[in-house]
Design brief:
By secondary structure, the chain is mainly beta. 6% of the residues lie in helices and 49% in strands.
């Protein structure tokens, strides 16, 4: 009996100390550049990625252990060619894109939705970097850089054709938001990026946007250089019940950088046969 109790305590301690996210794989995206956002489709079997030059790519994903490959790549032209498209979100109300110059949001048919008065205050290249949509069609967006140095990042919410500020995301260190998505349980996941001469570091935070006092939980902060310039995030549930995070990097059209898909899983969701494949 004593050894069973000891084993149980060891298991509970190990589980409590486990990293919130488990790294799964990295998949090279050869021939694709300037990617800024992603939406995973069909239970993980396919994805749509957005280029910051208003071009989209749709493909299927073949996963193989810690890597994989893309198949059936199709190019999709989007409204407003040559605009700085940064964010992508899909909901029951359609597909939406956010732009940095100037800050705005439009539907996939090119129709713009109304803007919050703050949007005009953000610098051209530091505006609406991230966009997410809840199941009911509510949109969430935030700028890459706040209007004032050191200020928190406002999380703007568009619901029932009205804008408000759902929460303020505290600024922590050098990190700036690059992507956002709503997970299967309604939590808002924020992907952030920092850069130094050592390379890029990525951080993922999440919170409940419907909480009266949202608290941002940090899931991961990667070492500088572990991944390239991760800009887009898609949080989805696999057919086996795992919560999966697929991230896409922006190579900025430079040969010194790489385009890749990076996948993690929410560790607590990997019980039993659950997997992101």
């Amino acid at each position: 009996m004593r050894w069973r109790i000891s084993f149980a305590l060891i298991w509970l301690t190990s589980a409590s100390l486990a990293d919130p996210l488990t790294f799964l794989r990295s998949i090279p995206l050869k021939g694709l550049s300037g990617l800024s956002a992603i939406e995973v489709e069909h239970g993980g079997a396919a994805a749509f990625v957005l280029s910051d030059r208003s071009i989209g790519y749709r493909f299927t994903i073949i996963r193989n252990g810690n890597t994989g490959q893309l198949m059936n790549i199709q190019t999709v032209k989007l409204p407003y060619p040559e605009r700085d498209t940064e964010g992508l979100a899909k909901s029951q109300n359609g597909t939406f894109f956010s732009y940095e110059g100037p800050g705005r949001i439009s539907r996939d048919n090119g129709t713009a939705i109304s803007s919050h008065p703050d949007f005009i205050r953000y610098k051209k290249n530091k505006s609406l970097e991230a966009l997410a949509a809840a199941r009911d069609g509510t949109l969430y967006t935030l700028p890459e850089k706040p209007a004032r140095r050191g200020a928190p990042f406002p999380i703007y919410r568009y619901k029932n054709k009205t804008w408000d500020i759902a929460a303020l995301l505290p600024k922590r260190g050098l990190f700036q938001p690059t992507g956002a998505d709503i997970g299967p349980k309604g939590w808002l996941y924020i992907l952030e990026r920092a850069f130094t001469p050592l390379g890029f570091s990525s951080r993922i935070r999440r919170f409940d946007p419907n909480s009266p006092k949202p608290h941002a939980e940090t899931l991961i902060t990667t070492k500088f250089g572990k991944h390239d310039n991760l800009e887009g995030i898609s949080v989805w549930e696999s057919n086996s019940g795992a919560t999966c995070l697929t991230l896409v990097s922006d190579d900025n059209f430079r040969i010194s950088q790489t385009s890749e898909l990076v996948e993690y899983a929410l560790t607590e969701s990997l019980a039993g046969e659950a997997a992101c494949d």
